[in-house]
Amino acid sequence: MLGLLSEGPASGYDLLKLFDVSLANVWPATQSQLYTELGKLAEAGLVDVTAQGPRGRKEYTITEAGLAELRHWITDVEPTRVVRSDMLLRVFFLAQVSPEQARSYLRRQAELAAKQLEHLASIRAFVESGEDNLSAYGRLALEYGRRLAESQGEWAEWAEGRIG
What domain of life does the UniProt record list for this protein's source (predicted)? Predict the structure, then answer.
């Protein structure tokens, strides 16, 4: 949220829409999670409510403390690189099902990767249309997601062919 608000003020609704076309592939969040997090950020003094509108609409702005925290997180906090994949855990135990069930499971993984590629292609024009910072760096994240999904699909097809 701090990263999105660093580009300018936004309401929770605006942030949710922006989240869906930019960060959902990296870090999916629900509407309730987003509003809960905005409340926590406001309590911590990292964002301010700078405007209120009809039906309880609030516009949030990042504070100097919030911007400092965002910059600290980007440059000083090492990313957690937890590699945990329920999908690969199942692959490890595919010997417990029939070869056809194993191939079907891997085929489904290839299909899911193809759907992810379709989704990324559907938002590509939107991401690439902007000239702001979120669009510029969003292109990098989008390309990472595209390459990852492409690789996952290729791997699943390869693995399906290895099942005897």
Answer: Bacteria
